[in-house]
Amino acid sequence: MRIRDILSGLKVKDIAGADQMHVVTVSSKTAIIDATRTLSEKKIGILIVCDDKGELLGVLSERDVVHAIATHGKEAVGMSVDGFMTRKVETCSLEDPPHRVLRRMSFGNFRHMPVMEGKVLMGVISSKDIIKYYVESGSPEQIAHVLKGFSWV
Predict the structure, then answer these.
(1) Which domains does the chain have, with CATH numbers?
(2) Residue predicted with more confidence, 29 or 21
(3) What is the pLDDT, as a whole number, of residue 149?
(4) Relative to the CA of 76, which of 5, 7, 56, 84 has its CA 20 to 30 Å away?
(5) Within 13 Å and on the Cβ side, how many CA atoms surround 142?
(6) Are 54 and 121 in contact (CB under 8 A)?
């Protein structure tokens, strides 16, 4: 089993019926207030920050927004994503085993990871996506294997 298997189940159909990646991206110039509106409207926890060519620059998470407000108060709403996004982003590939990606998320204390093939963004995987996949399709032995080594188990 690979990240590819989980990600393929997360694609949504566009109007023409073609598979589309469900990832919300913003520019680094986007105002924090606009980014928070997008997070709220889409009911998501992370935005992927890309440059004009679509290349990954960073991510803006709910935690990054909280940090912006805690640091700058109400002035943060007019500031741009660029000042608060996480620039050092861990990524995975379509061929990575899900249990290893889940462990990286757990030990790195984050819930979302961009899935890349070279410099191309293929999607975003969350710890919830991986856990749900194992619970719905995995055997008790697979689930035990995934959880082995976690400090909270």
Answers:
(1) 3-147 (3.10.580.10)
(2) 29
(3) 60
(4) 56
(5) 14
(6) yes
